Amino acid sequence: MYDFDSITDRNTPDDIKYEKINGIDDLIPMWVADMDFKSPPEVIGELVRVASNGIYGYSEADASYDEAVTGWFKKRFGWDIKADQILKLPGVVLAISYAVRVLTEPGDHIMIFEPVYGPFRRCVEGNGRKLTIEQLKTAGGHFAVDTAEMEKKIVEDSVKLLVWCSPHNPGGRVWSEDELRSVSGICEKHGVFIVSDEIHSDLTLYGNKHIPMAKIAGDNCVVLTAPTKTFNIAGIQAANIISTNRDVLRRIDREAITTGAFGLNKMGIAATRAAYTYGEPWLEELTAYIEGNINILRKELEDTKLVMMEPEGTYLAWIDCSAYGDISKKLLREAHVRVSEGSFFGMGGENFIRLNVACPRSVLKEALRRIKTVL
Ligand SMILES: Cc1ncc(COP(=O)(O)O)c(C=O)c1O
Fold first, then answer.
1. Binding site membership of 358 for ligand 1 (Cβ less than 6 Å)
2. 100-152 pLDDT per residue, tens
3. Which residue, of 19, 101, 306, 370, is most buried by count of CB atoms within 10 Å of its CB?
């Protein structure tokens, strides 16, 4: 039994989630996507072991690291990866930006589906590429892709690249095989390469199964993975970029080297190896705890006009606040609960909030009590 109920004081000056805002002392932060749970004991143990050595020189992941990564993806998703299909980089967003730069030219169109994690837009526009935004539709209470509209826009704009989010943040969709096949098929047909951000892939709920895009799109995609969301080590900055397309990997690697990003740091290597080797029992319990929190959230929202999109994955709840208008500032000011504003996720995010429920149950209950009082 792991302890997800205890409250850990993470209130240090460099902690983004708990950043002091408006001088509020009793802030409950439910915005940025990291968790209020300690990492698995084996990860902490390994980091302590590395730290206590006292020498923090240049490092390079060895075969034991690759074994941990390939073993994890094989076991969790039945996905066979070879060591030379993994590129280690200090971040998924960094990898999106590199992929944009090496796979497209300035002025090219890149498709994203909004609402989606805000930096997708930044990686496209900041690199001088043009956005082709397709808005996700809502069907049966979930986000869905309008494939006819998607294809039309790809043709109209001569789109070169799709940046895809699977599972989806903020909607919590775990895309089905049929949906992935449709999206991949359209991309293949029109020469659109896929960058699939799968950082949330380990966090699937209620028995939903994640399918890596690479199992469907093969050489026509690169999959961005990381242990950081799963094991709450985002501040350590580690990602594994996976593809059978070695040419694309080589080009991204060259871009990384050019900009001075050499693989992972010592802590990233140690934490990732330990997490993927020993972390599965912890993740199983974490998943059940998050499901429990989502169940509480769902029940508490029943007597409000807030409408939650049922998450199939992630610890994030996408909530329609249309009945109340844009309430994020009001929640901060009056309930002292900080949520992510829907507008951060682009088109279709207006009048939505995203609530991060990866916190001890007592904290979640107090936040919901305050939110309901304010509403
Ligand atoms: C979909 C998605 N991609 C990437 C990231 C950030 O990844 P990294 O910290 O490795 O850049 C996040 C963090 O919330 C995310 O939700």
1. no
2. 999 999 999 999 999 999 999 999 999 999 999 999 999 999 999 999 999 99
3. 306
Q: What is the DSSP letter of 16?
A: S
In whole angstroms, what is the distance from residue 250 CA to residue 267 CA? 24
Cβ of 35 closer than 6 Å to ligand 1, yes or no, is: no
Looking at ligand 1, which atom is closest to the CA of residue 165?
Answer: 1
Question: Considering only the top CATH level, what class is 28-39+280-374?
Answer: alpha beta
pLDDT digits 0-9 by tens, 38-96: 999 999 999 999 999 999 999 999 999 999 999 999 999 999 999 999 999 999 999 99
d(CA 142, CA 313): 12
CB 144 within 8 A of CB 150: no
Binding site membership of 100 for ligand 1 (Cβ less than 6 Å)? no
- The structural architecture, per CATH, of the domain 47-278 is 3-Layer(aba) Sandwich (3.40)
Q: Chain-centre distance of CA 45, in angstroms?
A: 25
* Ligand 1 pocket residue status of 33, Cβ below 6 Å: yes
Q: What is the pTM of this model?
A: 0.98
